[in-house]
Amino acid sequence: MNPPRQRPPAAAPHPRNRHRGRYDFAALTRTAPELQGFMRLGVHGQPTLDFANPEAVRLLNQALLRADYGIVEWDIPPGYLCPPVPGRADYVHALADLLAESHDGVLPAGEKLLGLDIGTGANLIYPLIGQVEYGWRFIGADIDPVALDNAARILAANPNAAQSITLRRQPDPRNIFLGLIQADESIDFTLCNPPFHRSAEEAQDANRKKWQNLRGSADRSLNFGGQHNELYCEDGEAGFLQRMADQSAAHRSQVFWFSTLVSKRENVQPLQERVRALGAADIRDVPMAQGNKRSRFVAWTFLDKKQRRAWRRARWP
């Protein structure tokens, strides 16, 4: 008889992530008293949150952003994507490490650095975290005017962030970089949380599996967060990534590092092969982990080492 299969040990978040330990729910419920209504006992009798409830996750994000990043007002419209703050912070910190590799190991911080968040959504999480942690400037871009209107409300309520974050609408949903990056702009990094699915049905099926993992039973009635453009596109994640690769080549001299999350492991190699064929000088597959969840982003640059040295001397403090 084979021994029971052991689950791999939980992996720690990035060392600079402010959310490395267990949530201090006592402190968080003081910050956001509404959270108290979503607390329950975990499997070992400890207090925990009903993470399967989108309203609980929204309130948790509010509390974390307020307590740890000084974002005094943050909210999203009903039905919009509510990403977990700790996982988004990991991407920002790992991207900072990648920049540091090209900067003699020194984390480049400050307002001289400009990032482009593709699909910033109504939540604006990446720019908010990146601005607080590293002082970077950001362009938050999206195709959805409702999402951008909400992001503008967040910035209006947080003047410190508003000084470093601008919003820009992509007028053509078929484009990712084209028509968005201006001819005279230099961008130090891009980041993206692409749509993972091909259809609403595929997204709903993935959500049912997530619900089952959280609650132990499937529930078809669960209304998961996310608009259609946040969750799926006609050609799915694989097609979106190929379009991103192709369009990145048109801005090869304007961007230091392109990067994107890749949800499905089988989509990593085709993306790497495509950007390599387009002339990328360096390609990275950067793993990340939050407990038992594994994720990754792929980054690439078309700049050779000499061009990267000249770039950092001109732009990075």
From TrEMBL:
What Gene Ontology terms describe what this protein does at the molecular function level? 23S rRNA (adenine(1618)-N(6))-methyltransferase activity
Give the enzyme's EC designation: 2.1.1.181
Q: Which UniProt keywords apply?
A: Cytoplasm, Methyltransferase, rRNA processing, S-adenosyl-L-methionine, Transferase
**Compartmental location:** Cytoplasm
Q: What is the catalytic activity of this protein?
A: adenosine(1618) in 23S rRNA + S-adenosyl-L-methionine = N(6)-methyladenosine(1618) in 23S rRNA + S-adenosyl-L-homocysteine + H(+)
Region Disordered, residue ranges? 1-20
Output the Pfam families linked to this UniProt entry: Methyltransf_10
Which InterPro entries does this one have?
METTL16/RlmF (IPR010286), rRNA_lsu_MeTfrase_F (IPR016909), SAM-dependent_MTases_sf (IPR029063)
Q: What is its main location?
A: cytoplasm
Can you quote a single GO CC term?
cytoplasm
GO biological process terms, semicolon-separated:
rRNA base methylation
- Compositional bias annotation for Pro residues: 1-12
The family assignment reads: Belongs to the methyltransferase superfamily. METTL16/RlmF family.
Function description? Specifically methylates the adenine in position 1618 of 23S rRNA.
**Listed name of the protein:** Ribosomal RNA large subunit methyltransferase F
